Amino acid sequence: MTIYQNLIAGEWTGADAVENINPSDTKEVVGLYASGSATDTNNAIAAAKAAFPAWSRSGIWERHVILKKAGDEIMARKDELGALLAREEGKTLPEAIGETIRASQIFEFFAGEALRLAGEVVPSVRPNIGVEITREPLGVIGIITPWNFPIAIPAWKIAPALCYGNTIVFKPAELVPGCSWAIVDILNRAGLPKGVLNLVMGKGSIVGQTMLDSPDLAGITFTGSVGTGKRVALSSIEHNRKIQLEMGGKNPMVILDDADLSVAVEAAANSAFFSTGQRCTASSRLIVTEGIHDRFVQAMTEKLKTLNVDHALKTGTHIGPVVDERQLKTDTDYIEIGKKEGAKLAFGGELISRDTPGFYLQPTLFTEATNQMRISREEIFGPVASVIRVKDYEEALSVANDTPFGLSSGIATTSLKHATHFKRNAEAGMVMVNLPTAGVDFHVPFGGRKASSYGSREQGKYAAEFFTTVKTAYTLA
């Protein structure tokens, strides 16, 4: 079987490889992907540093053309790349193709942004002096991405980094190297100069740690767990490095008495269980006022009975497998914790056998939960959600905000008053009204508050805040 190698200084390299296993069928090896060393990582950093002076001063049309080519090829290959994504991560094929299309749109957007780079010319408070304010590339950027969105998250970090003239050392999650390799291959063939984009696949303890230890990275953009994010932050202080961290979530979905029940159920089911609940924006706390509580629980239970858990590529599958055995154990451990804490298992919670061996788990719904239970405080990152009964809107808002996280927050209501108040007072970076908490646009900012995020926002024009540094120049007339 061919080994998909790392890309360092424009050359494909690497003999040591690991198997990429399909979570829908653990007998299938998706591919063999290189596992980089500390030396590989340092070589990649050196290559990016050497390439930075020329790339940072490259023309905006050159950047535009390369990013546009990449976006066009991703779109043209959306079915192929979507199938690869579904095979290596377990997301259903329609979701995987949708994520691939989003990656293409991200490259298309930043291809346009490359032509819209601008600054300011302002008068000085002193006579005969002009002031220019410009944005310049930050330098060598370390990019570390998670396994749950293996093509979209790399896209929304790589595209702006290149758009604004930075060079890159990219380490994808060990579980899902395939989509990352494909993106890098596409960009390499689109005409990126050698060393501008370097891919080092491998273990976080080796590749990731070497990146953290390097004084030559001007910035690191990271998406992953809170624990690892803190390590990225602490290591970066020593090197005076700019950081952007997107971490966990324990997102609430509030359902009020006046909600349209069908809208509320669809939004909650999508938020909590689609993509196997493996989204940092997933709603794992369903906060329901008492007037609609029983009807909502009954309707949610009936909805869950209709959701088919099966192979990610099979037609009619609503929920694919959990990504791997370790995550599956985490999910089942939390299900047992919920039972011991006194929550009622209203639906699911059982492992499922299918035609192929895989990590299949029923969507799991707890009722009679409280906001103090571990299943309501800690991120599970699986198809597990808890219903928390509250008296009224005021209590619902208080419970929604009572969390160390603050990524996404949702409300189902027909009240303009409550919707407006919630948008203003929800302690989250993103707020959804009558929509799932998961599912965002590519051209607007993404990010949270509290333990969910640190640093400037991702995506849209706000990406410039991280990937550039501001310069103010004064000229005597």
TrEMBL record:
GO terms for molecular function: metal ion binding; oxidoreductase activity, acting on the aldehyde or oxo group of donors, NAD or NADP as acceptor. SUPFAM superfamilies: ALDH-like. Gene3D superfamilies: Aldehyde Dehydrogenase, Chain A, domain 1 (3.40.605.10), Aldehyde Dehydrogenase, Chain A, domain 2 (3.40.309.10). The active site is at residue 246. Pfam families: Aldedh. It comes from the Bacteria. Transmembrane segments: none annotated. Residues 16-472 form the Aldehyde dehydrogenase domain. Keywords: Metal-binding, NADP, Oxidation, Oxidoreductase, Potassium. Belongs to the aldehyde dehydrogenase family. This is Aldehyde dehydrogenase (NAD+). It comes from Rhizobium azibense.
